[in-house]
């Protein structure tokens, strides 16, 4: 069995984040470090809130599209049912016309129409 290559490595990602933050706060006082970390947390919080809002909007759009698709499908199915009914009625009318034609005698070429 062939092993697939990992595309996402959580440990490597966490280490890279830790190293980036360590490089940014190196040489700062504790108060400066705390302010920097608070600022990053606030920025991430706002980004997360925006993502949540976008997610809610996408869910609403998805629900509208699904409803429209369902409505279109129902309309199409209804049109198909009506078409089938009309075909059945037409077939019945043709059958009835054929039976009436059999009952009515055809005029002979030498006889004038009645």
Structure report:
The chain has 114 residues and is an all-alpha fold. Helices cover 79% and strands 0% of the residues. The protein has two helices and no strands. The termini are far apart.
Write the layout of secondary structure elements.
Layout: H1 10-25, H2 30-103
Write a brief structural summary.
This protein is an all-alpha fold and 114 residues long. Helices cover 79% and strands 0% of the residues. The longest helix has 74 residues, at 30-103.
Summary tags:
mainly alpha, 2 helices, rod-shaped, 114 residues
Percent helix range: over 70%
The helix count comes to 2
Helix-strand pattern, N to C? HH
Number of strands: 0
* Alpha carbon gyration radius: 38 Å
What's the overall average pLDDT, rounded?
85
End-to-end distance:
90 Å
How is the biggest beta sheet arranged?
none
Low-confidence stretches: none
The structural class is mainly alpha
The general outline is rod-shaped
Work out the strand percent: under 5%
């Amino acid at each position: 069995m062939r092993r697939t290559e990992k595309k996402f490595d959580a440990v490597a990602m966490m280490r890279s984040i830790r190293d980036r933050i360590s490089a940014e706060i190196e040489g700062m006082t504790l108060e400066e470090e705390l302010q920097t970390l608070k600022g990053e947390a606030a920025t991430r919080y706002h980004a997360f809130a925006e993502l949540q809002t976008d997610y809610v909007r996408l869910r609403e759009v998805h629900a509208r599209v699904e409803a429209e698709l369902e409505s279109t499908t129902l309309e199409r199915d209804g049109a198909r049912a009506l078409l089938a009914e009309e075909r059945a009625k037409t077939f019945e009318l043709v059958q009835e016309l054929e039976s009436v034609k059999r009952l009515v005698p055809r005029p002979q070429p030498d006889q004038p129409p009645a």
